[in-house]
């Protein structure tokens, strides 16, 4: 049985490696033909051709869905292997080390920018539904952030569910942020921001809330890529994109149950669903959402709620993109453009330059540029 599961996954990873070289050079019209010929349009937005082609390939090979097996170990290997298969070849200095956590050592990786003077630091929390993901799965993204934003990045591995239920991951991330505050000089950090993708975005907001409530210095910035901010979410986007767009309702439910099952924490508890919390006093935020993401509406609402609380927000919705578009960036298309734009925004803000308070949703499709932003 294990062998039959391994073969299609290995074949998919080989295809992804090839796709990194081929897809960024293909025009959209060719990708549409390979994906079946007809664009997918929902809510007036048209899905990026590269994303549509990857979805078609997943459907044909039956390899889509991290939670399809129901086995955390299998899901973790699938995420790590697929991300590593597409990892960009970006040379930045790194150092791996462990820091103290509330229940043992936490593995971290420090990415250093090519500058000799002090630079801002982003403490990064990886996504993966609180169940999957690690330093290796997000190594390529962290390297790109470090190089292109010219900032330090400290990537943190926290305890995963279901072995470690909520609030273990939150406690670990708070401990990592607290450690970074105490070692800013050692890290060469001029100021400290926090950020993450998907569940890492959730953890980012929860760290900001805990820091506020526990009297810690607030981060300079919170950076959220397609965050899950309401685990009880009953939004329209969760219904629209409940199946067939990289993360399904079934997977979201599996992640949530793995994280909370057996605890007395409800899905709408502010301890895990920051959209339900009092947001006053939080740091400025960059919030990036995708038009084809089940988490779209709650991410957009989080940006609006911050604004109502008087927090400076730069919110950008990329209408043509699905959940997890950072992982698609090495394949080119709109995802590559979007990640380049979001990293540019991070660098701009942390360098002290101003950003517009808000950015209207993108029209379907971004620029016509299709060369991968992940070339070294």
UniProtKB/TrEMBL annotation:
Instruction: Answer yes or no on keyword Acetylation.
Output: no
By its UniProt entry, which PROSITE patterns does this protein fall under?
LIPASE_GDXG_HIS
Mind listing the GO molecular function terms for this protein?
hydrolase activity
The lineage's top-level taxon is: Bacteria
Keywords, alphabetical: Hydrolase
Any idea what this protein is called? Lipase
Organism annotation: Mycobacterium bourgelatii
Instruction: Name the Pfam families on file.
Output: Abhydrolase_3 (PF07859)
- Cited Gene3D superfamilies: alpha/beta hydrolase
- Annotated region (Disordered) at 352-376
In this protein, which residues make up the domain named Alpha/beta hydrolase fold-3? 122-326
Instruction: Answer whether the UniProt record assigns the keyword Hydrolase to this protein.
Output: yes
| Recorded family membership | Belongs to the 'GDXG' lipolytic enzyme family.
């Amino acid at each position: 049985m294990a062998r039959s599961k391994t073969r299609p996954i290995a074949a998919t990873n080989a295809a992804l490696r090839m796709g990194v070289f081929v897809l960024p050079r293909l025009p959209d019209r060719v990708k549409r033909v390979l994906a079946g010929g007809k664009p997918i349009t929902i809510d007036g937005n048209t899905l990026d051709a590269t994303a549509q082609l990857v979805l078609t390939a997943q459907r044909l090979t039956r390899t889509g869905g991290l939670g399809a097996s129901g086995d955390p170990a299998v899901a973790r290997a699938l995420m790590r292997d697929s991300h590593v298969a597409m990892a960009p070849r970006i040379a930045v200095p790194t150092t791996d080390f462990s820091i103290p956590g509330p229940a043992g050592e936490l593995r971290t990786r420090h990415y250093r920018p090519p500058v000799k003077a002090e630079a801002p630091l982003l403490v990064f929390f990886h996504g993966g539904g609180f169940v999957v993901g690690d330093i290796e799965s997000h190594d390529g993204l962290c390297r790109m952030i470090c190089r292109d934003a010219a900032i330090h990045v400290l990537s943190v591995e926290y305890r995963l569910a279901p072995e470690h239920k909520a609030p273990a991951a939150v406690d670990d991330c708070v401990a990592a942020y607290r450690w970074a505050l105490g070692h800013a000089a050692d890290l060469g950090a001029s100021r400290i921001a926090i950020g993450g993708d998907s569940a890492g975005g959730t953890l980012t907001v929860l760290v900001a809330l805990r820091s506020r409530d526990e009297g810690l210095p607030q981060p300079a910035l919170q950076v959220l890529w397609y965050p899950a901010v309401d685990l009880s979410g009953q939004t329209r986007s969760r219904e629209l994109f409940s199946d067939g767009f990289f993360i399904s309702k079934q997977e979201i439910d599996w992640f949530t149950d793995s994280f909370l099952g057996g605890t007395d924490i409800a899905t709408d508890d502010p301890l895990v669903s920051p959209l339900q919390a009092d947001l006053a006093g939080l740091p400025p935020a960059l919030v990036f959402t995708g038009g084809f993401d089940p988490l779209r509406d709650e991410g957009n609402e989080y940006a609006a709620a911050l604004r109502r609380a008087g927090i400076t927000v730069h919110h950008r919705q990329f209408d043509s993109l699905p959940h997890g578009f950072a992982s698609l960036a090495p394949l080119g298309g709109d995802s590559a453009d979007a990640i380049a734009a979001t990293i540019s925004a991070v660098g701009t803000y942390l360098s002290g330059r101003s950003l517009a308070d808000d950015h209207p949703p993108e029209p379907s499709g971004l620029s016509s540029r299709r060369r991968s932003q992940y070339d070294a």
